[in-house]
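Review box. Two proteins, two foldings.
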Amino acid sequence: MALNTSRSGELYVKACTLLPGGVNSPVRAFRSVGGHPLYFKLGKGSHIIDEDGNDFIDYCMSWGPLILGHADNDVVKAIQKVAENGTSFGAPHEGEISIAEMVVNAFPSIEKVRFVNSGTEATMSAIRLARGFTGKSKIIKFDGCYHGHADHLLVAAGSGLATFGMPDSAGVTKNAAKDTIVVKYNDIDALHQVLSHNDDIACCIMEPVCCNYGLILPENDYLHKVRQLCTQHNVLLIFDEVITGFRLARGGAQERFGVHADITTLGKIIGGGLPVGAYGGKAEIMAKVAPDGPVYQAGTLSGNPIAVAAGIATLQKLVPSAYQKLEELGKYFEEQMKPVVSRYNGKMLFVRFASIFALYFSKDETITTVDQVKESNMQQFAQFHRLMLERGVYLSPSGYEVGFLSLAHSKDDIDATIKAIDESLALVLG
């Protein structure tokens, strides 16, 4: 059942002579699952085909933005139509207004929005805005939440319940990290302790649902309690909804949980698969952004016509019935997984929320902390990943990443996936 990946192997060897690690983003390198990355030439609907002709049901979905599936006809047509009139102007165009209106209408907490080119840009800019608005310098982030690769966000927790962070990457200086405080996600007491003993905190930035360290859901009223503490201490709350925005609901996690952030960052889906990001909030806060205010942020290709067109075409199709279908697919997936999970009780765990899912090789019955994810058996995941590839299912090549359903996935896809999971688990777990 071994795959023929000879052409991908040849491409990888050549890529390693030209690109660091042969890739343009570390997680693509297959280092944690073994072997070399696959090189893809075609994606349509829920499937992708690599350079060797192997056909896979895809649950990476370009790490989340392809909520309509690969090469959606309406998105492709929108890109083609706009590209014929010009790929970039470096000047305003009507599409920017149209997509901004869609975002503002979807998120009650956003009255004005600024578009950028990536999620990293969005979170970096949002934090600068929070500092400029409050006049404070320190920020709080939560262990397990990823917000891009800006220096002050590549920070790991120090020792103790809640401490000033330490650099989590070479090239990040202690000075870059010193204004970032890391607390545990789902630990409201840790947040209360920090906020009660520091009056120089500009913002808390968090993924309302952790999707970059497995799938960790907020416990009970955790998000509401975070909101209350931030309000109480005059600290801005930033929700990083780069993944959850327009995926958990049209209004993202804020709609799903009924909690409003002061600043929201978006990405992924609002570009329809093209590079894009955004940050927005109340008009009073956004008034600080240049050219209206003193917080400088710029981008030559921000709001470029092609990404905007893809985003508009995508958002136009995310109507209530689309989310209903995604929820039904998610429930079907979960129901079909139950007998599989029951056979391996105490050895693995399947978690789903809306159209996002994760599979852990863990003895735990629930996952609520990063420490639990760290304790999962990543060697077993690596073996599982290879077996799933052999059975025609493509998962993100890391046990710390989540999977995504799209509107292009079918129950037949899920049935085939369940069969592959069952067969693969039998070999991994016996």
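Next protein.
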Amino acid sequence: MTRLRKLLADRRGAVAMLAGLAAIPLLAIAGAAIDLTRLYLLHSRLVTSVDAAALAGARVINDLDRDAQIQRWFWANFTRERQLGQTGFLGAEITSFNISVEESNRVVRLRVRAALPTTVLRLFGQDTLVATADHAARRQDRGMELALVLDVTGSMAGASMTALRDSATELITILFGPNETVPNFYMSVVPYTSMVNIGRGRTNWLAAGSLDPTAYGSTVWRGCVQARHQNREDETDTPPTIVPFQPYVWPSTVGRYSPNRGDNEWSTWSITEPNPESPASDSAQNAIGNEARGPNLGCGRAITPLIQSRATLLTEIASLRATHRGGTMANLGLQMGWATLSPRWRGLWGSATLPLAYDTPYMDKVLVLMTDGNNEWHDWGEGAPGSCRTSGSNPPCRSGYASDGDADMTAYGRLRENRLGVAGITNARALTEINARMSRLCTSIKATGIIVYTVTFNVGSSTTQNLYRTCATRPEYYFNSPDAASLRAAFREIGGQLANLRLIR
């Protein structure tokens, strides 16, 4: 009886049992802490990955492979375990990946769901924990004035001009998307050759009495002007109200030279210069090429000042044609690109409020300068030495042509006029001087806060490459494009960089 009482009074086994039962919730709590910590880490990585992917998607919102690029950016940050798999960081599986485009194709939204396998909690029937991220990125409301300065010299004829038009069109498409206008975004287009065209309607920008209509024979002045080389005004943003322009004209040389002297021999009945304002097809314009004649020879299409119309800009780009004769003076294109952005020219281009002040809040000023060659005078002699032309505008055979050291007319006149003031003028020395003026001009433009991008297309000269690299605001803002595909990639990259982005949720 005594033993029975002792056995009933003994509680040691019960305590052990109760201790074991109490350990179960403690174990669950510890397991939950471990798995919830893993869930926290997963959620942080998921948010980072979705943010990066959404921003990348907004940057390329109009690209055909936009969704593929979003996927690549996501998995680059989420650390995919195996190629084409859906498992990544901490072994989490992506169970939902939804991409959508909202607000007139300006916002990319990405919603992702990830399932995390548990470690301890699976012992209690909880096999997975879920993390989600829902973020969107859009183009920032920050505005921009953008000048696109493009080389349209004769060397751009054919496939090169097609590549330029395609590249510039893609840049415009990236920045505008499908929208006809974008708030606070303005863009100008400045084609250049060895001169620039300010527009034939701007005769009030010319020095009084400088325009002689009779100098243009049966045609008219089309808007190209001479370089303001005096006192190096070709390196400033001085408006024409202070230093006016002189109109450009290539004088007729009929009867001035022997038939073997290649030149611009035109008369009122032999003008064959292409009209840049009503451009013929590429094939028709290129067929004339260097054999064109006329007082506006070498004068390209007029500048398009800052506007907001996507359609008008695309039309201007589509209308660009290679313009033969003269040479390449990228410094003059650069200067007039600055003129479309400089507040010193406000009201002169047609808008009473543009260009805006440099320090306008939430506004950037950007200039993109592109060329396919060196700065130089072109010397076309209607048949190189040793060749024989038996057809064309001035037959017969021209095999006796030899250069006399002069060259075509440009905004700086002829080479031997030496308006640059170079000792012992030659094309090489003129190139050095023009490059120096362009370099100083780049420095002045960047000093105002304008962001400068530069692009060389199929340019082999290291001197020219270095000139454009140094001209850019940063080394990475310079692009050397050896072919059409590289040119398009350069404009696409610039467009992506200029499409300012920010997360909105």
